[in-house]
Amino acid sequence: MKIWLSGASSGLGLALARQLLSDGHQVAVSARRAEPLQTLAGDFPGQVLVLPADLTDASSVAQLAQTLQHHWAQLDMAILNAGTCEYMDVQHYQHALLEHVVRTNLFSASLCIEHLLPLLRRSAHGHLVAIGSSATFFPLPRAEAYGASKAALRYLMESLRVDLAAEHIAVTLVSPGFIDTPLTAQNDFPMPMQLTAEQAARHIARRLPAQPQEINFPRVFIAILKLLNHLPAALRLAVGQYLSRNAKEDQSNKEHP
Ligand SMILES: NC(=O)c1ccc[n+]([C@@H]2O[C@H](COP(=O)([O-])OP(=O)(O)OC[C@H]3O[C@@H](n4cnc5c(N)ncnc54)[C@H](OP(=O)(O)O)[C@@H]3O)[C@@H](O)[C@H]2O)c1
């Protein structure tokens, strides 16, 4: 299969690229940093197409799609994995932070969809995949920007699923819990049921061939979040405030051990 994957220079994307390449696929990889992508290409000779790009930049994405089209007649799967997470300090609410996170997590995905859909349409079994987040199942403290970007990404994918069904293009939204990556290494709070990037990549790669609408994991963690979200509104707020207090205490313990 011919697969394009974004955010392949570190974390989940890098582990997923390695897994897909080990499974024998041809993988085109993108991220801003070219060096880790070149290393990947060196490890899997003849299987990797290196396409570095800043995916928030429209002309870079257009150029990327043109190069991809030059090398491949069709694209079987596009995996929108590139993303970022920054936490909001509500005492100093910053619109710029939200704008940056939304641009990286939502607008870049939308740009890639615009430019890669024509190539996906040429495949007999086109498959569009996005990495969302379990944060969309329960509003978490300080996640205003990240949660909003991933909730919007969820709606975008769900709506696209309906519209692309007539063209037999499958749409999968992946919503993972915590994964040990450079992104979460900055987190100053406990991350229950955290998986390694390799475990998460194996799980995703195993599920993708069935083209499911959703891949949510770890299952127990997701079930807890969904259950919490079904609590009466007042209780849901109390749980959120409890988590928020804990997050502040953890942060303060780290700053003043
Ligand atoms: N880690 C978790 O617990 C977790 C949980 C749920 C969902 N996720 C999602 O999983 C995805 C991967 O995250 P991760 O944890 O693996 O983080 P990561 O290690 O920081 O990887 C993020 C990737 O996105 C790329 N990227 C960021 N901005 C980009 C841009 N403007 N243009 C092109 N590439 C860009 C980065 O590459 P460059 O810096 O080289 O550009 C990097 O390869 C994200 O969408 C994240 O929201 C992660």
TrEMBL record:
GO terms for molecular function: oxidoreductase activity. The keyword Oxidoreductase applies. Keywords: Oxidoreductase. The keyword Oxidoreductase applies. Signal peptide: none annotated. Pfam families: adh_short. One of its GO terms (cellular component) is membrane. InterPro entries: NAD(P)-bd_dom_sf, Sc_DH/Rdtase_CS, SDR_fam. Belongs to the short-chain dehydrogenases/reductases (SDR) family. This is Short-chain dehydrogenase. It comes from Atopomonas hussainii.
